[in-house]
């Protein structure tokens, strides 16, 4: 920390925060007797709080966002230069960084052609939902309007996104929900013993078949879209089992269902490929992305579509209703694509995809070594620098550890100056997975440091 703030300044900041800021996803009662954490500076993999305490950040800004690390001067300069040139114009017009970033992005996404800009992951998902609904009205008299989503997946915070949300603790108390969203079963092999009829072999194909069963139950002529995370994030870091994605693609083609992949977490490098779906050879119709697109240096989200989808919105220009009648005010901010362009260049120039694969493999191995030493770790899984360790009370029964004990591990690490994550208030009774998503610049030393903190925390909490 460079000492830019005096202790007086920081005392005022804490008082203002406690008096007026409503923090995200947190109960505020404890702040009546203790101060909230205020992050005042970041550099590389590290952040400092108001007490000057250094933290190694193993979750890229708490929610898998700051993929290229903190303090990237070239992104800040690019944003500054762009803002001085022109900060904003509504998205009915184009912008220089918007055009250039769309081209660079599409180069990484064979088969996709169009980028619709907006400003959050939830909003990008809403765009895809609206497009699927509009296609249903234009082509199928409104009938093919249902959108399937998966148990344990999360797609955002708005009411429609919660309606497509497979995490009942996130959804609870915010109903009634939007009609027309239908849930399909999860594909977490470690918990297949809780799923009726799950086989001991070829689980991936079976899990995909469950989607087909739901389509047949609902009627294929009523189902317009399927929305899935490529690797489920907050629902427990679920890497899909072998055979799953190929079957999912076949099912979508068979029933003329548009495939929407939510890459809000996995997109732009997190799993070691540009996009998570690219591990599985599938061809989506929609890809939504947000967090890592500009690593949190500016707000930007994109709903990317194939040309086939785009064409459906311009095939009859004589019809005044026949285009996507949607706008996102802040989708016209130029800071987002300006930051995203630099972010992409950094990933390329520093070979951060290569680092993500190498460091992800290393971290997975180290987590497995930790699993050998701690019986509480029932399962370790992940892809690239996107990893989870599921904590259980008994390896035989796989009963989950209570959320409070999992949070005790997170708190112990925090006390040691290492920020890790855990699934929280997400799947009832299953908020038992520790989450790791360090920036794509992580080194072996960083990973050793993170896992040594976890090792100590597990020993203190579980013995
Ligand atoms: C997979 C996924 N989709 C969508 C979202 C929503 O993104 P946002 O918070 O930017 O609206 C999130 C947020 O965590 C997410 O994890």
Automatic annotation (TrEMBL):
UniProt keywords, alphabetically: Aminotransferase, Pyridoxal phosphate, Pyruvate, Transferase
Q: Which Pfam families match?
A: Aminotran_3
The protein's matches in InterPro entries, at most eight in alphabetical order, are given as: Aminotrans_3, Aminotrans_3_PPA_site, PyrdxlP-dep_Trfase, PyrdxlP-dep_Trfase_major, PyrdxlP-dep_Trfase_small
GO MF annotation list: pyridoxal phosphate binding; taurine-pyruvate aminotransferase activity
Q: What is its EC number?
A: 2.6.1.77
Record-stated family? Belongs to the class-III pyridoxal-phosphate-dependent aminotransferase family.
Would I find Acyltransferase among this entry's keywords?
no
Q: Which residues form the signal peptide?
A: none
Q: Which domain of life is it from?
A: Bacteria
Q: Which species is the source of this protein?
A: Maliponia aquimaris
Annotated protein name in UniProt: Taurine--pyruvate aminotransferase
Question: Amino-acid biosynthesis: present as a keyword of the record?
Answer: no
Question: What cofactor requirement does the entry state?
Answer: pyridoxal 5'-phosphate
């Amino acid at each position: 920390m460079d000492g830019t703030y005096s202790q007086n300044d920081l005392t005022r900041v804490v008082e203002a925060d406690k008096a007026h800021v409503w923090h995200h996803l947190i109960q505020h009662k404890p702040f009546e007797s203790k101060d909230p954490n205020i992050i005042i500076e970041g550099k590389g993999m590290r952040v400092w709080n108001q007490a000057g305490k250094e933290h190694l950040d193993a979750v890229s800004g708490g929610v898998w966002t700051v993929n290229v690390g903190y303090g990237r001067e070239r992104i800040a300069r690019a944003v500054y230069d762009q803002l001085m040139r022109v900060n904003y114009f509504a998205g009915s017009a184009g912008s220089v960084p918007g055009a250039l970033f769309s081209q660079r992005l599409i180069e990484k996404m064979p088969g996709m052609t169009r980028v619709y800009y907006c400003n959050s992951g939830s909003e990008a998902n809403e765009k895809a939902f609206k497009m699927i609904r509009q296609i249903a009205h234009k082509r199928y008299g409104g009938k093919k309007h249902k959108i399937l989503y998966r148990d344990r997946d999360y797609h955002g915070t708005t009411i429609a996104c919660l309606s497509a949300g497979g995490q009942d603790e996130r959804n609870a108390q915010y109903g009634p929900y939007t009609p027309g969203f239908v849930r399909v079963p999860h594909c977490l092999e470690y918990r297949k013993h809780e799923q009726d009829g799950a086989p001991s072999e070829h689980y991936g194909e079976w899990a995909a078949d469950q989607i087909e069963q739901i389509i047949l139950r609902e009627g294929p002529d009523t189902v317009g879209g399927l929305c899935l995370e490529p690797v489920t994030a907050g629902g427990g870091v679920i890497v899909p089992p072998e055979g799953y994605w190929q079957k999912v693609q076949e099912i979508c083609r068979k029933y003329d269902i548009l495939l929407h992949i939510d890459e809000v977490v996995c997109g732009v490098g997190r799993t070691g490929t540009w996009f998570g779906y690219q591990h599985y050879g599938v061809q989506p119709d929609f890809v939504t992305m947000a967090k890592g697109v500009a690593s949190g240096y500016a707000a930007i989200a994109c709903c990317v579509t194939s040309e086939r989808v785009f064409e459906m919105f311009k095939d009859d220009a004589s019809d005044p209703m026949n285009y996507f009648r949607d706008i996102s005010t802040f989708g016209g901010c130029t800071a987002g694509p300006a930051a995203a362009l630099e972010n992409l260049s950094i990933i390329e120039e520093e070979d951060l995809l290569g680092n993500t694969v190498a460091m992800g493999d290393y971290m997975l191995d180290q987590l497995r070594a930790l699993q050998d030493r701690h019986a509480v770790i029932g399962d370790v899984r992940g892809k690239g620098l996107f990893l989870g360790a599921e904590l259980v009370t008994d390896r035989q029964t796989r009963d989950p550890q209570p959320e409070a004990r999992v949070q005790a591990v997170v708190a112990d690490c925090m006390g040691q100056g290492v920020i890790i994550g855990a699934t929280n208030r997400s799947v009832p009774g299953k908020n038992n997975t520790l989450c790791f998503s360090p920036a794509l610049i992580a080194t072996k030393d960083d990973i050793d440091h993170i896992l040594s903190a976890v090792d100590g925390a597990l020993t203190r909490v579980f013995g």
